[in-house]
Write a structure and sequence with these properties.
The protein has one domain. It is about 90% helix and about 0% strand. It is mostly helical.
């Protein structure tokens, strides 16, 4: 277990965090607006929630990893 955790800490860097938050922002702002313009309201709502989860989850995972190391 400790070996897996140490490997994950070494892999998950600031660049992975930026990528994850960037994907979340793209989904939250761009994809949801595009879906809303195409009158896909349910899908637009899902895109906003998924983007929000990516942004919060990516930042929280980075903070958790930094607290462990």
């Amino acid at each position: 277990m400790d070996l897996i955790l140490n490997k994950f800490v070494s892999i998950y860097s600031i660049w992975a965090t930026i990528l994850t938050i960037g994907i979340g922002m793209m989904s939250f702002f761009v994809d949801s607006r595009t879906l809303k313009n195409k009158e896909n309201l349910k899908e637009a709502k899902w895109a906003k929630w998924i983007g929000l989860i990516y942004m919060i989850g990516g930042a929280a995972l980075f903070i958790f990893i930094k607290l462990l190391s």
